[in-house]
Amino acid sequence: MSFEAESGILAAGATLRAMSKSMIQRSNPEREASGRAFVELKGRGQSVTWVNRTGQSFTAVNLRFSIPDAPNGGGSSNTLNLYVNGVFRQSVSLSSAQCWLYQNNRNKNPAGGKPYKFFDETHFFIKGAPLTPGSALSFRQDPTNTAAFYWLDVVDLETPPPPLPRPANSLSIADFGAVANDASKDSTKSIQRCFDAAAREKKIAWIPAGTFYLTTADGLNAKEITIQGAGMWYSSIYRNVPLPHAGGTPDIIDPVSCTIKDLLFDQNAPARDGDYGDGGGINIKGSHWLVDRVWVQHTSSGVWGDGSNGAVTNCRMLSTWGDGINLNNGNTGNDGNDLTAENNFVRGSGDDGLAINSDASSHQMNRVTLVNNTSVAPWGANGLGIYGGKDIVVKDNLIMDAATESGLSIGVFGDNGAMLESGSVQGNVILRSGDKDHPGLSIGTGGERNSIQNVYVGSNLIQNPITRGVAIRKGTNIVIQNNRVDGGRMPGYVIEPEAQGSGIFVGNQAMNISTGAPDTLKSTERYRVIVPVTATAYRYMFGNIFAEACSEGGRNITRLTNGSYTSYPAVSFAGVGGFTARVSGKEGGTISVYLDQPKGTPIATCAVPATGGAQKWTDVSCPVTAPEGSHEVFLVYSGKSNTELFDIQWFAFVPGSPAGG
Q: Which CATH superfamily is domain 170-432+448-460 in?
C-alpha cells in the first residue's frame, strides 16, 4: 500500500511542492517525484501524517526521500523521526550518498552543472506494535534531525510474511563460511563455493536471513541451480566495494538457467559507471530461468535477461542506475525468445523502467511479454521501452511520471536495433509522462535505421501528458485504435513533421486538451493517415450476416460462413500495396478481396487464424495487386462449410506491402 506524501496531513509549516507548468526540463525535483509532488520539511516540528484507513495492519515501511548533498558532493547523512499516533517510535537513518548527480550521471561534483537524480529509497521494520487500522503514522523533524530539508515523496506500507524456513535438500552459504551482518567480512568466495557445490550435488543454495557482504569486485556465478532466500525483507547480498573503485565492476551475479527467489541484491554504488563500483544486479541467461520475489536496488540494471523461456515475476526494482528490467537477446548473438516480465514494480530507474531490447547483431527476439507491471518515476529514460522484436505483447501495465522521456516508447534502438516486426500494445495506463520533446506515448523516434511495422496500439489511456499524448514519427501498418488522451497542453495525437510510413486510426479520443486541438492527424508527403472502412458499412451482403456490438467499441459483422460476402462503395487504389483487417477468428478461414464483382481473380487473399473465440481481436495483413483507379470492393469469406468462420470489425487498404499474418 503506497501513500503519496501529498495525500498526508501537513503540520507546523510543512509545505507541499508540486510541479508547475514551467517545470518541463530536468533539475526540478518536482518532475522526478512520484505523482509530480512531494512534501518538504524544513524546520523544527514540521511533519506529515497519514491515517491508516485500509483496514489492514502494517509492520514495515519503504520511504522515498531526499536530503541535501554535501557541499562538495558525495552525500550527507542524517535522521528523521517516526511517530505512531503521536508517540515516538524510532529514528530513521537517511543518506544522500546514492542520489544527487550533476549534468550527467557520472558526475558527483556540484560544480559539474545543474542537479538531478534527487531521490533515494530506504526500508525498515516499524519498532513495537504494528500500525493498526485507524492509526496515524507521521514523520516529524525534531531537534535531533538537523538536515537543512527533508523531501518526502512516497511511503510504502506492508506486512512482510515471516521468514521462510530453510528448504530440504539445500546447502547453506553459512556452512561454507559466509558471515551475516558484518561489513568487514567478505563472503564472496564462501557464497561461490556454496553455489558450485549445489550445482554438483543438485541441491538448493540457501541464503539465510541477514546481510552478506561482497567487498571485492568479483561477481558471483551460478548454473542450473535454485538460489533461495528467507524473503526479500530478510536475506540480502550486498556489494560493498571500497570507493572510488577503478577498473569497472561486474554484475553481482551472472546465473545461467537458474531460479532465484526471495532475496534482495543491493550495493553501495553512488552513481553509474566510472569509478563508482556500479555493476549490474542479475544478468541471467540460458533457458527456463526464473527470478521471482526478488528486490534489487542501486545496481546498474536490476535484471538483465536473455535466452529462452525465462520470467521475471513479482519483483521490485528501486533506484537502479540503469534499466529496472531489460529483456533482450544478449547483444552477442544470443536468443531472446519466450521471455516474460509480469507483476513487477519498478521505481526511480536511471534508464528505462522496463525494456524489450532486440539487438540486430543477435537473433531476432520472439514472443516477449510485459504484462501487469508498474513503472514509476524513471529519471533517465522511458517508463517502458519496446525496441524491436516479433510478436511482442505489452499489456495492462501502469506507467507513471516519466521525467525525461516518454511514458511508453515503441520503436527500434538506434542503428544497432533489430526491426520491430509485429506486436500488440494494449490496455496500458500512462500518467503524467513526457517532456517538451517526448509525448506520453511515442511510436518511433524518427532516427531508426530498421523498420517498425505491424503493431497494434489499442485501448491505452494517456492521462495528463506533460505536452502531447501520442506522437508518431515512424512505422508502417501501425494500427492506433480506441486510445484515449485525457489532458495535456498540445494536441492529443500528433503526426510529427519528420514522420514516415502509415497508420490506421480508428476510434481514438482526445479530451481536456488545453490548446483545444484534439489532434493533428493529417497525411504528409512521407506519412499516410488511413481511416479504415467499417465492416458494417457494406452496400450489399450475401449470407446470414449480422451486426453486433464490438468489445473494442463500435460494431462488427459476424456469422460469416463459407461463400458469404459483403460489398463496399468505390475505394481509390492509388498507391495501395496491402490489405489489413481487424478480425476475431472463431474457426478461421480466408478473406478474398475482389473488385467490382465477387468472382474472378482476387487482388488479395488473407488467412484468418483462430484467435481463441469471439471478440478476441487481432490484425491480419496481406499484399495487394490492384489496378489504379476506384473500384467497388467485395470481401468474400471462405472456410469450413456450414460453420461460422470469424468476425470483422474494419478493413483498410494501405501503402507498401505489409507482411502477412
A: Single-stranded right-handed beta-helix, Pectin lyase-like (2.160.20.10)
